[in-house]
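To assess whether the prediction recovers the assembly geometry, we first specified each molecular entity separately, as shown.
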Amino acid sequence: DSGVTQTPKHLITATGQRVTLRCSPRSGDLSVYWYQQSLDQGLQFLIQYYNGEERAKGNILERFSAQQFPDLHSELNLSSLELGDSALYFCASSADAGTSGRTDTQYFGPGTRLTVL
Amino acid sequence: AQKITQTQPGMFVQEKEAVTLDCTYDTSDPSYGLFWYKQPSSGEMIFLIYQGSYDQQNATEGRYSLNFQKARKSANLVISASQLGDSAMYFCAMREDTGGSGAGSYQLTFGKGTKLSVIP
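The predicted structure of the complete assembly is given in tokenized form:
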């Protein structure tokens, strides 16, 4: 158990809909990262939040957004869903204490499997 | 150009034997970290081992060791005494340190993975 929790574990929805994925980081970790894993694109970084502020953006679509709340949990919002958005979405957390060492290892949650029909 | 290359889509190893999974990387940043993660069929991503670019010694974690050859930009994972439970996808990832003192972003770039199958 990595200590990172994600809900829900599975999500099935229809095209055009909006969903929210939730992540709680490990105790003490300030950074939350979101990744998407799909068969054609592999594992891709979407976005990072550090202590409530957006820190970096990767290959995140404009239809997607995220936020990190004062209690450090994070939500990834996916809207106007398309078939191609079906994927496994991971949240990872790390201390990101600036040590650039092993202590900044990212620990992944169990993922949310999104299926868009 | 791909930042992380894993050239072995699939590998087979006999139980109790050792196996090496290849990973090469590309970066011009002098400070970076290399990671290996395991993804069983259940889907979770499990951290295995870390190697920092300035580390003088190869990292080891139990049955996992990392054969780090900086000049060749390779970071191969060695699993000793393979077990049936080692059957999984293995991903090599790189973290480039784009900032320091807590101000940077340390997102990971992943390779495409190697599927390891352990044969009894």
